[in-house]
Amino acid sequence: MNRRDFLKGAAVGTASILSPSILKVEASDTAKSAIKSYREIGTTGLKMSDISFGGGQLTSSAMILRAVDKGINYFDTAPDYGESENTIGEAMSKLPREKIIIASKFCNPLKYPAHLKAGTPVKDYIAAVDASLTRLKTNYLDFCFVHAIGEMNQDVNAETARLLDKNMLIAVDELKAQKKIKYLATSSHGPHNMEELLTRAIDSGHYAMVMGSYNFMDFPKLPEVMKHAKSKGVGFIAMKTMAGAKKVGIETDGLTFSNAAFKWVLKHEEVSGLIVTIKNVKELEEYVQASGQAFTSSDREVLERYAANYSSSYCRTGCDQCEGYCAKGVEVGAALRYHMYFRDYGLEKRAIESYATLLVNAKECGDCDDPKCAAGCPFGVRVKHMLSCAHRDLTVNIG
Ligand code: SF4
Ligand code: SF4
Questions:
Q1: Closest residue (by CA) to atom 6 of ligand 2?
Q2: What is the Å distance from ligand 2's center to 330 Cα?
Q3: CA nearest to 264, candidates 317, 319, 215, 210
Q4: Ligand 2 binding pocket mutation candidate from 323, 328, 369 (most atoms within 8 A of CB)
Q5: CA-proximal residue: ligand 1, atom 4 (nearest)
């Protein structure tokens, strides 16, 4: 399905969106930077724009309207993403709801991470979705996620209990019967057991789609998970596709790093689409240019240059290969992901708050001389140095 097909039948909704006071996009730019490809999400019958909208930093409803005008039709949000759900709700009266796919999460509207725990009463799962629907000003979610499995707990069985929580599954049946959600989904950016947990979700038969961290930097086990998902009719959405999103000095000959990174992800047919945080119009215009485009040798050069510059300063999101190396139990993957949010994503507040929830942070890394630390990362990440920087940046405001 191309953008014209997507917009067809939604003329009323898009006509109101195309208010000149909101949109001032030149015709030639519009043609160049617009979604050109939609892909099936497993066997749900839903098709998503290959480049889709991650709403983690959403504060402007006009950005939603602009994104829809560009052909984006999938929006990822959560109760613990600040004003994200309310902002989508502000735009809702102007959106062609039946043409939009909205995904939210089983979470409370508190500081991230506020995921509902295993054993949460059925009525609280249902109340969480009702509250999301109120904020979003809609009467259904297309997908409701069990959010970020493997983030807070190293125990694969404890996190599996969250994936397969009996109360949650009862709530899902009730919510489906009430037509308040269409499908159950789950996400993981690790750092603990990402591939194992996504596989368990796929095999459970309860999940219509899974979302994982995936990019051109060393994810050796994930392609098997993606193939497995496809064989079971489960959709796979990729996130964290820009491998840390450090863009300095990478663009060349009119090619942008973001476009090369997106095209690399999308060349895998198992991928239903990707979500990316879109903070402003410039990023929107840039990102959608990768839609429907083939990955080229020039793109490969851009990615190789990025890898040469940043491989040792990018802790692979979702990786846990150094787990257990630190005798003090520092949560390496989580600490470095939160620092990535702080330094590269501009999510300072959320990063500091999330870092404060770690049971063992990087306080002691500065004075540590354990030689095993440097050897623990097969990708040559400068673990001790980066953890020391993370602790310095992420504790500065909380005393
Ligand atoms: S430091 Fe290296 S081994 Fe440890 S989680 Fe990051 S990328 Fe993986
Ligand atoms: S520097 Fe020392 S305390 Fe910090 S993660 Fe490495 S081994 Fe653990």
A1: 373
A2: 7
A3: 215
A4: 328
A5: 322
Per-residue pLDDT of the chain (399 residues; tens, 9 = 90+): 454 454 443 333 333 333 333 333 344 455 568 999 999 999 999 999 999 999 988 889 999 999 999 999 999 999 998 899 999 999 999 998 999 999 999 998 877 778 899 999 999 999 999 999 999 999 999 999 999 898 877 788 989 999 999 999 999 999 999 999 999 999 998 788 899 999 999 999 999 999 999 999 877 789 999 999 999 999 999 999 988 877 655 566 567 899 999 999 999 999 999 999 998 999 999 999 999 999 999 999 999 988 888 888 888 887 888 877 888 889 898 899 899 888 887 788 888 988 998 888 999 888 888 887 878 888 888 899 999 999 999 996 544
- The tokens describing 235, both together, are 């959709």
CA 149 vs CA 103, 160, 202, 211, 252: distances in Å: 16, 8, 13, 10, 37
- Angle (nearest 5°) at CA 178 between 97 and 128: 80
Contact 159, 193 (CB under 8 A): yes
3-state secondary structure of 51: strand
Query: How far is Cα 21 from Cα 243, in angstroms, rounded to an integer?
Result: 36
User: Does CATH number 3.20.20.100 belong to domain 3-305?
Assistant: yes
Residues touching ligand 1 (Cβ under 6 Å) are: 191, 315-316, 319-322, 332-333, 336, 377, 379, 381, 383
Domain limits, the chain: 3-305, 321-395
Distance 251 CA to ligand 2 centre (A): 35
Element (H, E) at 260: helix 257-266
Probe residue for ligand 2, chosen from 323, 336, 370 as the CB with the greatest number of ligand atoms within 8 Å: 370
Q: Collapsing DSSP states into helix, strand and coil, what is residue 252?
A: strand
Instruction: Calculate the alpha carbon distances from 335 to 56, 319, 361 in Å.
Output: 19, 12, 7
**Calpha distance 39→47 (Å, rounded):** 5
- Ligand 1: centre distance to CA 348 (Å): 22
Residues present in the chain in total: 399
Distance CA 82, CA 84 (A): 6
Q: What is the pTM of this model?
A: 0.83
